[in-house]
Amino acid sequence: MWVGLAFISPWILGFVALALYPVVSSFFYSLCDYSILDKPAWVGTLNFRDMATDKVFWQSLYNTLRYAAFALPLGLLVSLMVAVMLNQQIVGRPVFRTIYFLPSLVPLVASVMLWIWIFNGSFGLLNYALGLVGIEGPSWLTDESWTMPSLVIMSLWGIGNAVVIYLAALQDVPRHLYESAELDGAGAWNRLIHVTFPMISPVIYFNLIMGIIGSLQVFVQPYIMMPNGGPNRSALFYAVYLYEHAFTNLNMGYACAMAWVLFI
User: Fold this and answer.
1) Angle 253-254-260 (CA atoms, 0-180°, nearest 5)?
2) Which runs of consecutive H residues, i.e. helices, occur in the chain?
3) How far apart are CA 178 and CA 180, in angstroms?
4) Does 122 have pLDDT greater than 90?
5) What is the pLDDT of residue 90?
6) Which of 11, 66, 139, 219 counts the highest number of beta carbons within 10 A?
């Protein structure tokens, strides 16, 4: 046993130092008034009670859940449809797979800076394209009615990872199931609904869980594109508000309490 523990000791030490200690200490600090610069002062559940009356907290939570309600199902559907198309026997299939995967390799900050120019109300590429078909584009990042749709549209930029996972699952579906369905007269749509989806349902579930985690923790996009929460705080996300309390206001106790609510 001691030899085995010695072999896995680097992992144990890493887990204790980088995961277990931060989790336990954050729970302790959530029950304290802690500004990082001073010693934590015990206040019990005061941070959680203050959270219940904090209107900005509720707005950031609402914005985050609203974003997740649109970006998550849309991302799952689009990535699945793209994977189904890329799984077909078409000319240049490896090239198309590369094209759809490449955006997920672009550093997040660089892609956000790119989308800031795409969403520019006066000189942006998106409004220019809409103008070609006679549609006057909105002020995506300065109109509170369009800040959330712009972030949802941008979320589709990084579906490459989910597409790759779906592709791996699609290629593992036994061919004889499709052949049996064809012999029974099932068309392409029926094969997709009654063969493909049931066989890759564990992968759909996995991408759903990862999507929930990612959508609730979204930070870089709104923080860089709309650092002040956007017009009328319409793009103030939970993680951004948590970051402001922790590292701008140095209210680490309140931020740790927010982190535990996010965890729950």
Assistant:
1) 95
2) 2-15, 21-29, 46-52, 55-86, 93-101, 108-118, 125-132, 147-155, 160-170, 175-183, 188-191, 197-199, 201-216, 220-225, 238-243, 252-263
3) 5
4) no
5) 82
6) 139
